[in-house]
Amino acid sequence: MMKMHYSMAHEPLLELSTRDALVANMKKAGIEKIWIAGFLSGDMIDLEELKQAKAFAEQNGLEVGALTIPVGHPGNSLNPDDPDSKLTIPAHWHYRIDKRGETAYFCGAIDTFLIEDNGKAAKLLCDAGFKEVFLDDDLRIGNLNDSIEGCYCDACVTEFNAIYRRQETRETLRARLADKLDLALMKDWVAFQCDKVTAVMKATEMEGVQPGIMVMHFGDERHGIDIPAIREQIPNTLFRVGEHQFNDRKFANPYAKGEEMLGIAYHLNFIDKPFAYSETTIFPPRSLKAHNLVYKAKLAIAAGLENILFMSGTWAMDDSYWKAIANALPVLRAFDKACADGERTYPVHLAYGTHGAYAEPIIPTSLPVLAGLPVKPLRADQCDGDGELLLFFGDYELTPQWQAKLPLYNQVIFDQKAALKNKAIIEALMATASNLVCWDQVATSKPDIAEVSLLQARIGQEASDFPRVAEGEPYRVGMAEELREGHFI
């Protein structure tokens, strides 16, 4: 069943004049657990203050966990309204250097000092009574883009060469990773970066502490985040899956809502639901209307998340947000109950590359979601036997791994972009395969209603018996959309 959480700074829990009202608002909104920041970009928050904040919350019936910012963040993503936000990293850390040799300010490179400091912070938080430590916003070595990221400082390149017996420089790495021809090098560099992120996680794993990691929107190995490896080495890890669309300007677009659904479904391919948390976030402060925040929670529930985690940086949400969540709570609970009875199945798969190390497009088209299909993105290195229809849309390579999976589907549809990229392979396969179809349309990154209709018509030509939305208005924005029931066939 759904559990509601809120991530916040500790100071509002110490403000005598307002803290009672804040906690009352949170409880009315169904919040059962809060996560308070304890270690920010190398600096430990005053432990006595953290203990007092934790004690007050617990006295008022709230569970309390800790979160940290383990490496810093490339930019002020805490609260740009607060000029006093401390975002510099400690002097004994060193900044991450990107592939162009430029400094990623506010963001530490993962080295021995950073790893040790995060381990020490987890131990201090454990001793202060915190049993979970979420390494949040964001434990990664890159930003949201298609490219293979990492730290390209001299020390990291030297360490990489020593471990993998190579003789690369920043310049050769940049060039060879950009042309994407040397897959062995790409995999080695990605593994090197992933090991660093996982090492930070392992430093926080100790008796009495359950670690967690935030995974940004479609974050994967190219950003140093190897979810299967983390789960193998630290089986009880919590994962916060990044949803990205944090303000009205972005979230109001139907294709963005579709991307959010796909992003959650993609990460749930790797994670058991009890360990997965939403990123139901407002950023910057007040930039997402209250009803859109509620809608984000609905999307998370619909996608299969059981832990709904609201967040607003160091800014505490005001009364209007808590009131909106409280008013929607009966609907959210009813929605959760209706969704929780059956296991979700996705007979439609959307091809999403082969592996993060291939550096293929990071955000797939949300067209199948807007067309009402029960769809999830799937990589070629993932096993899943429930697929009937595979949509191979976009600039993804039909690798040998994907070719081996094609016979498992009743039908595979390639859009024009995928068909052109893999023209020779598809033509050769079609000589013996009857389940391959080339669609004379391009699935764009921002589908409009005309594209939605075209895909619905194309799928409607088939005798597929899986349930799908046949009627609806995905391009209506506002409260009416939230409350509208879909019509299924």
Automatic annotation (TrEMBL):
Superkingdom classification of source: Bacteria
Protein name as it appears in the record: Uncharacterized protein
Organism per entry: Cohnella ginsengisoli
